[in-house]
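mind reviewing both lines:
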Amino acid sequence: QVQPVESGGGLVHPGGSLRLSCAASGINFRANVMAWYRQAPGKQRELVAAITSGGETNYADSVKGRFTISRDNAKNLMYLQMNSLKSKDTAVYYCYARDTYYPFSAYWGQGTQVTVSS
């Protein structure tokens, strides 16, 4: 069973920074789309940022200019650099990957908690 593994979550003060990592061994890193989602208590899971194998990126409006998604295809790693964190960024952050070839398999990580609080 292929499953991405997130790391790097924790407690940070408002205005602080965190970097999340996603390790995805067993996935064809050169033929997929990867993304970070998050889910706050009582809310639906939402897309935070996505990146193609070619490096094209897409961000939710709420994180533009503060978060940066990147990937290292050689190491099968994806990152989310989060700066200027706000209390509303508090959520469980999930790594997601989807193959861009049939049968377009999708993979979810278990999630890592990010808490922004003073």
User: Anything to note?
Assistant: The first strand starts at residue 5 and ends at 7. The two ends are 39 Å apart (CA to CA). The mean pLDDT is 94.
